């Protein structure tokens, strides 16, 4: 590598401590940072214009051409680039086989208006999603289905947790999302002329017969309690995904995928 690189070896180095602190919500809130693991993910973040604070590369891998190129790119974008032994990478990520690259990025907090878009589109609203793995999986699904945005309603889990970022497989960088109260969201979607279809175990329309429309929001309920009645009452359609067998509901992320792909299928996957 022909650009300045520091090497750190001590677990008590302040940088390692501060990266480790990103595991907890408190550490992320105090710094406004979050952690992304793996060269592909970090590349995706930089590609999408997210600002990296620090890039750490496993020292023994640093000469690999794609990692050297990544270091150069991150450094040019203003990130601090350091080398560290694998055991320190594992310490930060709590993984025995840690990725050879980790990076801290600055969080982005978009207003709801940033999700406004003209033309056809599918938006996904999640009411009080609490499981970080579900949230990451849903961001990935929304990205795959070309959704226009994801709205996190009321008190949701942190989109910047390790688990969510991991489960999103990079979609955290690609899929716009915003936090909002239900009331603010509902005014916003009415002003945009977006229909509101709830996925609900109380649904009266079968999901593949529900008229999503060309511009629609799919709203999903909390993992335990589903959607409050007051919110279901404000929806245009309550859609039920048929079930048989003993379980009383599908997993939230799976139900979201079924609904989103159905809405897209109704638009002939265009
Ligand atoms: N006991 C909860 C309830 O009464 O809604 C179950 C919640 S479920 C795990 C989480 C969310 O996934 C639901 O609020 C709903 O949005 C969606 N969901 C799960 N199974 C569904 C189904 N068969 N039809 C429609 N939506 C479903």
From TrEMBL:
Keyword Transferase included in the entry's annotation: yes
GO cellular component: cytoplasm
UniProt-listed InterPro entries: Alpha/beta_knot_MTases (IPR029028), MRM3-like_sub_bind (IPR053888), Ribosomal_eL30-like_sf (IPR029064), rRNA_Methyltransferase (IPR051259), SpoU_MeTrfase (IPR001537), SpoU_subst-bd (IPR013123), tRNA_m1G_MTases_N (IPR029026)
GO terms under biological process: methylation; RNA processing
Residue ranges occupied by any RNA 2-O ribose methyltransferase substrate binding domain in the UniProt entry: 35-111
Keyword terms of this UniProt record: Methyltransferase, Transferase
Signal peptide limits: none
Residues annotated as transmembrane: none
GO molecular function, one term: RNA binding
Pfam families for the chain: MRM3-like_sub_bind, SpoU_methylase
PANTHER family, alphabetized: RRNA METHYLTRANSFERASE 3, RRNA METHYLTRANSFERASE 3, MITOCHONDRIAL
Family classification: Belongs to the class IV-like SAM-binding methyltransferase superfamily. RNA methyltransferase TrmH family.
Protein name: RNA methyltransferase
Source organism of this protein record: Hyphomonas oceanitis SCH89
Organism taxonomic ancestry: Bacteria, Pseudomonadati, Pseudomonadota, Alphaproteobacteria, Hyphomonadales
């Amino acid at each position: 590598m022909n650009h300045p690189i520091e090497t750190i070896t001590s677990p008590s180095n302040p940088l390692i401590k501060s990266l480790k602190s990103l595991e907890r919500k408190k550490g992320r809130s105090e710094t406004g940072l979050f952690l992304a693991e793996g060269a592909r993910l970090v590349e995706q973040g930089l590609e999408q214009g997210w600002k990296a604070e620090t890039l750490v590369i496993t020292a023994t891998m640093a000469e690999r051409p794609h990692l050297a190129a990544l270091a150069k790119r991150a450094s040019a974008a203003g990130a601090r680039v350091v080398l560290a032994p694998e055991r320190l990478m594992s310490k930060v990520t709590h993984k025995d086989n840690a990725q050879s690259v980790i990076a801290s990025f600055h969080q982005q907090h978009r207003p709801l208006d940033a999700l406004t878009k003209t033309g056809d589109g599918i938006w996904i609203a999640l009411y009080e999603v609490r499981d970080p793995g579900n949230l990451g999986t849903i961001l990935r699904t929304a990205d795959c289905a070309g959704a226009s945005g994801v709205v996190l309603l009321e008190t949701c889990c942190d989109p910047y947790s390790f688990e969510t970022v991991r489960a999103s497989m990079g979609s955290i960088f690609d899929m716009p999302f915003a936090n909002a109260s239900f009331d603010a969201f509902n005014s916003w979607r009415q002003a945009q002329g977006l229909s509101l279809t709830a996925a609900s175990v109380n649904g009266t329309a079968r999901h593949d017969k529900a008229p999503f429309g060309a511009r629609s929001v799919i709203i999903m309920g909390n993992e335990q309690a589903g959607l409050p009645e007051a919110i279901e009452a404000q929806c245009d359609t309550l859609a039920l995904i048929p079930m048989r067998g003993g379980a009383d509901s599908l997993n939230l992320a799976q139900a979201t995928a079924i609904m989103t792909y159905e809405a897209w299928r109704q638009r002939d996957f265009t």
